[in-house]
Amino acid sequence: MSSYKLAKNIAWQIQPTIELVYILNITTNEFIYFDGVSKDIWLLLANNYHTDYIADKISNDYNVDKSMVYNDIHDFYNQLLEKGVIMQND
Q1: How many whole angstroms separate alpha carbon 3 and alpha carbon 21?
Q2: Please, which domain of life does this record's source organism belong to (predicted)?
């Protein structure tokens, strides 16, 4: 799987009391919110972890088959690419 990074046209933060991640696509003025597993994946991605590490961590943390996690991450990344909040590394 390719590696990804956050797009430059976003601002984001975590709201710690309700454990929610807010993302603003500055170009489109669209807000996106994540919690649960999607929040965990986002935070790992934001800290420059590679997809392999993210899949291992999510698989272990949630006791889910790694191949299923890879598929879910792939789908999640495709959604993020469509919304313009991540991009593939060169």
Answers
A1: 21
A2: Bacteria
Point out the residues of the chain with pLDDT beneath 50: none
Q: Count Cα neighbours of 73 within 13 Å in the Cβ-side half-sphere.
A: 26
**13, 22 Cβ separation under 8 angstroms:** yes
Can you point out the beta strands (E) in 16-73?
20-25, 30-34
So what's the pLDDT on residue 89?
Answer: 86
The two three-digit tokens of residue 61, written as one number: 């943390």
86-88 and 4-6 strand pairing:
antiparallel
Domains of the chain by residue range: 4-88
Estimate to the nearest angstrom the gap between the alpha carbon of 13 and the chain centroid.
13
Q: Burial of 72 by CB count in 10 Å (0-12 exposed, 13-18 middle, 19+ buried)?
A: middle
